[in-house]
């Protein structure tokens, strides 16, 4: 079967995938944002996942914001976001809208492959009916579906699309083989063909749920050890000398995956009558870490006779992880909000962040450069390499004569900061 490929959604997941396929075959990259299309046509990726050189290497890749340009395609890979809403419920709106768009150009024999993280059953129960309704075609008779969960790790230059093993699946055994062979074109380390679409969906959602629960355990240990006056990092380093101890670290849990995916699984579990205990307990712990960090900072400031109300607090880092511009679901905003609740004035500095995007997404405008001697407290919230390079002395220089330095990411030695998680 000859596949004319289209990638729907050119964000952190879709663009790297489109580029890898574009090195091997013709592929149409589709995004509803004309500004994004213009940027890519000009050879620049604001996510920094793909270099300008790699965009040039993808000779088979073309870009469009027009549905009409997808009519010649017969295989569509959907890589749109799957966020949660304000009530921690799955928001399938981007996925449904993408399915509606594809349904308008869907033809007999076409295949639609989803990569977006969902709960088990979403592809066949939520997306396929939309494709049928929009196209007038019948599933597994006129058109087919597949699911191959994304495993992109933003900012990671070692683990890229082509060298991360890919889980694949299809709505029939024959289509499963077609989907698997398609991905084998670009995945040099191989693929794993799952028994069904639901198995592949479940595999993806538990990958990040497992990490979330493990981080929650370490966060809870940090809460306990802090009350006991024991350095958590020292404990983890000692325990880590055992060969099978898992090297998780405490901290804020945000991003497009770990802080979101468990809610997809718990939503589905509750829909079928099961109330998840461990998963939701882990979520509660992790979602409460921003509030805990600020409470610890405020106590330290009070002990140091530093007034909290109207205090200027430098928050170093806003992205959800180090060395990338990704702001999706960053929990640093919890720290900013909590500081404001205490009457403090948080000042955010992040050299990786686009200030306009931060303002649009969170109402936060990062400063371009911190001023020496200006802050009553400093929080190292993200482990950017720029902050690591600064070192303790330069970071301390940003504070007033009397200030509190909270090293949330273990960037400094224990004795160089006033607080650690």
Word description of this protein:
This protein is α/β, with parallel strands linked by helices. The protein is 40% helix and 14% strand. The protein has 14 helices and 13 strands. The protein has helices spanning 14-22, 34-41, 52-57, 93-105, 122-135, 173-184, 197-228, 232-239, 261-271, 278-287, 289-303, 332-341, 355-362, 385-397, and strands at residues 5-8, 27-30, 61-64, 75-78, 111-114, 144-147, 166-168, 191-193, 312-316, 345-349, 375-380, 399-407, 419-420. The longest helix has 32 residues, at 197-228. The radius of gyration is 23 Å and the shape is globular. The N and C termini lie far apart (55 Å).
What is the residue-averaged pLDDT? Answer: 95
The main sheet comes to:
6 strands, parallel
Order of helices and strands: EHEHHEEHEHEEHEHHHHHEHEHEHEE
Kindly state the number of beta strands: 13
Q: What coarse outline follows from CA principal-axis ratios?
A: globular
Strand content: 5-15%
In order across it, which strands form the biggest sheet?
Answer: 3-2-1-4-5-6
Please give the radius of gyration in angstroms: 23 Å
- Uncertain runs: none
Number of helices: 14
Oligomer description = single chain
The helicity comes to: 40-55%
- Which structural category do the helix and sheet elements fall into? alpha/beta
Give the N-terminus to C-terminus distance in angstroms: 55 Å
């Amino acid at each position: 079967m000859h596949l004319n490929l289209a990638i729907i959604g050119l964000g952190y997941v879709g663009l790297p995938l489109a580029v890898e396929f574009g090195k091997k075959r013709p592929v149409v990259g589709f995004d509803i944002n004309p500004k994004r299309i213009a940027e890519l046509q000009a050879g620049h990726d604001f996510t920094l996942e793909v270099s300008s050189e790699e965009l040039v290497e993808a000779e088979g890749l073309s870009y469009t914001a027009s549905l009409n340009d997808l009519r010649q395609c017969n295989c569509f890979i959907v890589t749109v976001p799957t966020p949660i809403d304000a009530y921690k419920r799955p928001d399938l709106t981007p996925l449904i809208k993408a399915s509606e768009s594809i349904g308008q150009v869907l033809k007999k024999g076409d295949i639609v492959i989803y990569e977006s993280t969902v709960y088990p059953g979403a592809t066949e129960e939520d997306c396929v009916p939309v494709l049928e309704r929009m196209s007038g075609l019948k599933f597994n008779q006129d058109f087919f579906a597949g699911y191959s969960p994304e495993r992109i790790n933003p900012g990671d230059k070692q683990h890229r699309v082509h060298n991360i093993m890919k889980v694949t699946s299809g709505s029939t055994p024959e289509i499963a083989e077609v989907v698997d062979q398609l991905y084998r074109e670009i995945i040099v380390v191989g693929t794993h063909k799952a028994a069904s679409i639901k198995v592949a969906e479940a595999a993806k959602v538990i990958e990040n749920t497992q990490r979330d629960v493990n981080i929650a355990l370490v966060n809870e240990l940090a809460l306990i050890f802090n009350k006991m006056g024991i350095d958590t990092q020292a404990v983890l380093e000692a325990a880590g000398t055992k060969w099978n101890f898992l090297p998780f670290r405490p901290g804020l849990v945000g991003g497009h995956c770990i802080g979101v995916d468990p809610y997809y699984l718990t939503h589905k579990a509750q829909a079928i009558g099961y109330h998840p205990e461990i998963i939701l307990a882990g979520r509660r712990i992790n979602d409460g870490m921003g509030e805990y960090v600020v409470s610890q900072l405020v106590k330290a400031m009070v002990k140091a006779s530093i007034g909290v109300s109207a205090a200027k607090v430098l928050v170093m880092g806003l992205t959800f992880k180090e060395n990338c511009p990704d702001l999706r679901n960053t929990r640093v905003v919890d720290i900013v909000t909590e500081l404001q609740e205490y009457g403090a004035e948080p000042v955010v500095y992040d050299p990786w962040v686009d200030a306009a995007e931060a303002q649009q997404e969170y109402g936060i405008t990062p400063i371009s450069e911190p001023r020496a001697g200006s802050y009553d407290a400093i929080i190292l919230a993200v482990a950017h390499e720029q902050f690591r390079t600064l070192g303790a002395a330069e970071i301390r220089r940003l504070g007033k004569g009397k200030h509190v330095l909270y090293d949330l990411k273990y960037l400094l030695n224990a004795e160089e900061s006033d607080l650690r998680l």
